[in-house]
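Translate sequence into structure tokens.
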Amino acid sequence: MAVSYPYSLAFLADILPISAVTWSEKRSDRLSGQGSGRIWQTELAPPLWTAKVEFDDAVYIRDSERYAARIRKLHGAQESFLLYNPALLYPASDRRGTVLGASVVKIAAIGNDRASVSMSGLPAGYQLTDGDKFSFTYGASPTRYAFHEVSEPVAADGTGTTPIFGIYPHLPAATVAGVDITLARAACLMFISPQSHNPGRANRGLQGGGGFEAIQRRRP
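Result follows.
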């Protein structure tokens, strides 16, 4: 079977021996100000999520080479893969995802500011906490991937629907209400930051110190 892109979670993220990850953002802002301390900020482009991934210190070298081969097959920054934060697989109030189960969650409504949403399809009374992540796909040819986080705590009512609540960053302009969203193992479409992949140092059949940095890919 030929390798296909973007890599699914099962093909790369699920098998990586991740010991630590720093999940952050890269902003593209223009700042100007006055001597009085007043600052003006213009967002030139939507912010991009970034991840600095560190591998376990002791990985069997054959396994390490398997991971490295798949990363090299991304051809540097050319191809994309899906990645999640292994420490934040589910919402904070449901750390194993047992309550969420197979619920089909949707964006029920979008705020006028496009930085707030309502969700439906949640279990009755389900709680979301600021910092919980969610993802969804939209569009076609190509399929586009969105990755966001909850910015304030909110709870679903008895029908599984939340009030409008804040999220970050703003939703893409093409997002519409009714799209299915993922709260369990929410994943971001990313590429390997140039020259950042380190397969690690081999020593007596083990390999350690490996990792890479990744940046979110936004498709036009």
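Note: The chain is about 5% helix and 40% strand.
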